[in-house]
Amino acid sequence: MISASMRSYASRSSLPPRSRERFSAPTLTVHTARGEQVSSRDGRELWLREIAPSDEAALQRCFHRLSPEDIRRRFLHAMSELPAPMARRLCNIDTARETALVLVDETVRPAEIRGVGRIYVDPTTDSAEFSVIVERAWSRMGLGALLMQRLVDDCRLRGLAEIWGYVLQENRPMLDLCKELGFTQHLIPDEPGTAQIRLRL
After folding, report:
1. 27-38 as b/e, with b when 16 or more CB fall inside 10 Å?
2. If you count DSSP H runs as helices and E runs as strands, how many of each does the chain have, helices first?
3. Predicted pLDDT of residue 30
4. Contact 175/147 with Cβ under 8 angstroms?
5. Residue 61 — φ and ψ, nearest 5°?
6. What is the Rg, in whole angstroms, of the alpha carbon atoms belonging to the chain?
7. Between the CA atoms of 129, 185, 16 and 37, what dihedral angle is there, to the nearest 10 degrees?
8. Which of 48, 86, 143, 159 has the fewest CB atoms within 10 Å, counting from its CB?
9. Which residue from 147, 130, 177 is spatially nearest to 46, judged by alpha carbons?
């Protein structure tokens, strides 16, 4: 997910950008069969599209570029690698119950995944659990907000009543983002340090 950067309050320049600046939407420039071309605030270009079975190797490379902190915040526990069977499963989704979106950097070869957002639908509760992660070098560019908004839109198109997820309380940027999108936060008594955030649709 998006990394925290709360530091000194000694001067204005040392403060992190305001949330509306950190999470402002990137500029969407082109729609093609390859997906949507996204231009981040600093001018870098990515393609936003659905995940594909051919993304397995790129997904594993993306995982290896994540810091241990990023991995713990995304998976809520430590992982040293993304095994091939798990990567294969994550790239071969059941579209009736899942959506997975990737931000792909095609300025390098091979193309690299810089961010992933996904939902898992539970038809018994008419809701979906979400997860979002953006590579640290691409964070603070509004890309996490873009992925979250697209997941919320997808849930609404599916006619679901709610989207929710688990977020570590230390992950202030993600909590701030979800608050801006209208999510409510609830502490989990049995899991100290973890919040469940929900958005009624």
Report:
1. eeeeeeeebbbb
2. 6, 9
3. 54
4. no
5. -65, -40
6. 17
7. 30
8. 159
9. 147
All structural domains of the chain, each given as residue ranges with its CATH number in brackets, are: 18-200 (3.40.630.30)
The answer to whether the beta carbons of residues 106 and 49 sit under 8 Å apart is no
Structure tokens that stand for 130 in this block: 């979400």
pLDDT in tens, the chain (201 residues): 433 333 333 333 333 344 444 444 454 445 566 789 988 888 889 999 999 999 999 999 999 998 777 777 666 566 778 889 999 999 999 999 999 999 999 999 999 999 999 999 999 999 999 999 999 889 888 899 999 999 999 999 999 999 999 988 888 888 888 998 899 999 888 888 888 999 999
The predicted structure's pLDDT at residue 105: 96
Sign of CA dihedral 12, 14, 17, 18: negative
d(CA 112, CA 166): 27
Strands in 27-32's sheet, in edge-to-edge order, are 27-32, 35-39, 45-50, 98-105, 112-122, 127-134, 162-168, 194-200, 184-187
Sign, Cα dihedral of 65, 70, 74, 75: positive
- What is the DSSP-derived secondary structure letter of residue 107? T
Q: What is the pLDDT of residue 51?
A: 97
